[in-house]
Write a structure and sequence with these properties.
This protein is an alpha/beta fold and 210 residues long. It has 2 domains: 11-95, no CATH class; 102-205, Rossmann fold, CATH 3.40.50. The chain is built from 8 helices and 6 strands; from the N terminus they run H-E-H-H-H-E-H-E-H-E-H-E-E-H. The chain has helices at residues 11-29, 41-44, 47-53, 56-59, 86-94, 126-135, 148-156, 195-205; strands spanning 37-40, 63-66, 109-114, 139-142, 158-164, 181-185. It is globular and about 60 Å long.
Length: 210
């Protein structure tokens, strides 16, 4: 089965597109765990994939890691499940390691998720915004510099989160059902993404142990 996707190196797309394909085909076709799964090497080497690969659901599968070589198969499955499907998000929550579902301490942290100008999407006056946030008592974090477990804990300890539209904000999925205020910075447009409404609805409905 082909798990390749245009956004495969982005963990928001990993949750919403890559893992969702696996869940979808299991449901609709009773996909056997013996079916080989084809993924990209750069994706396979990502720390967030390693985090979830430790879970028995993924660990015991047969992975075909594609680098620069073409791979010939007699039969390949392609699919495109609906995006932001609540039951798929719930399954992802169940794959979070138990120790990361427990807060080390309660907190009322204000969190600004910054983003490097080396990324495709960034805030031009990001340094100014980060400076204002620091003055107001926000903790400023670049999630590119954190392990997934650290990102999960940062969001679970946050009361208010500010950040540019991007994969970092999808971590509100791990909020544990606590009250959370979110400000998403997005350029003026006629399209307003609904990604994080879906994510937090699931977080509200599945309260991870505190």
């Amino acid at each position: 089965m082909l798990l390749r996707d245009t956004g495969e190196k982005n963990y928001c797309h990993f949750y919403n597109t890559v893992l969702a394909k696996l869940f979808f085909l299991e449901e609709k076709m009773s996909l056997s765990s013996a079916v080989p799964l084809l993924i990209c090497k750069r994706f396979y080497d990502r720390p967030y994939f390693e985090y979830f690969l430790a879970h028995p659901y993924l660990l015991d599968r047969q992975w075909v890691v594609q680098d620069e070589k073409c791979i010939r198969r007699h039969r390949t499955y392609f699919c495109k499940p609906l995006t932001h499907t609540p039951q798929y998000y719930r399954r992802i929550l169940e794959m979070v390691r138990p120790k990361d579902r427990v807060d080390n301490r309660p907190d009322d942290r204000w969190l600004f998720i910054t983003r490097s100008p080396l990324r495709l999407r960034f805030i031009e006056n990001n340094a100014d915004i980060a400076g204002i946030c620091l003055e107001l008592g926000f903790k400023v974090l670049d999630f590119d510099e954190l392990f997934l477990s650290e990102q999960i804990q940062a969001v679970r300890q946050a009361r208010y989160v500010v950040g540019i539209h991007g994969a970092g904000l999808v971590n509100i999925l791990f909020g544990g059902g606590r009250p959370l205020g979110l400000m998403e910075i997005y350029p003026p447009a006629t399209y307003f993404p609904f990604h994080y409404f879906s994510s937090y609805d699931v977080s509200e409905s599945i309260r991870l142990p505190v």
